[in-house]
Amino acid sequence: MTYVFPPAQQASIAVAGSEDRIPVRRIFCIGRNYAAHAREMGKDPDRDPPFFFLKPADAVVEDGATIPYPPQTENFHYEAELVAVIGTGGVNIPEDKALDHVWGYGVGNDLTRRDLQLKAREQGRPWDLGKGFDNSAPIAPIHPVSAVGHPSKGAIKLTVNGEVKQEADLSELIWSIPEMISILSQSFALKPGDLIMTGTPAGVGPLQPGDTCVVEVEGLGTCTTHIGPRA
Question: Residue 203's pLDDT is what?
Answer without folding.
Answer: 95
